[in-house]
Amino acid sequence: MAKLGNVTIKTVSNYARIACAINLQRITNILNDKSVWAFSLANDSSTHYGKSYFDNRIRFHQDGVLYNIHALAIPMFERHTGELMLKLITDFFDIVCLL
After folding, report:
1. Do residues 36 and 62 make contact, with C-beta atoms less than 8 angstroms apart?
2. Chain centroid to CA 23: how far?
3. Which of 70, 71, 75 is nearest to 49 (CA)?
């Protein structure tokens, strides 16, 4: 096992950031593709082990296939109101969907 070396928390967090950036770029490319002319959202907010979070899935049709992808799961530090959920998803799509 010594030959494998060790991995620091910083290295793991950097790889996680890179993986998230790549996946967000892929979502951006998909949603801005001319063949994807519509998509639907499935939003959910919940509290798990005392931590509130907002979850979003995107469904779209591309190249004859219907996709259902998990787009986002982020903490919600305030109450689960419709207004706050709208702000979170609007902020996300202002970045990801350039339409």
Report:
1. yes
2. 8
3. 75
Q: What residues form DSSP beta bridges with 44? A: 55
Q: Where are the beta strands (DSSP E) in 63-94?
A: 65-75
Rounded to whole angstroms, the Cα distance separating 97 from 31 reads: 6
Tokens representing 41? 């959202």
Query: Residue written as tokens 């593709």?
Result: 33
| Nearest by Cα to 31 from 40, 42, 20, 22 | 40
Give dist(CA 33, CA 77) in Å, integer.
33
pLDDT along the chain (99 residues), means of 10: 73 92 90 87 82 88 90 79 82 81
Note if the pTM is more than 0.85: no
The residues, ordered by sequence, that sit 6+ positions from 27 with a Cβ below 8 Å of its Cβ are: 58, 69, 71, 96
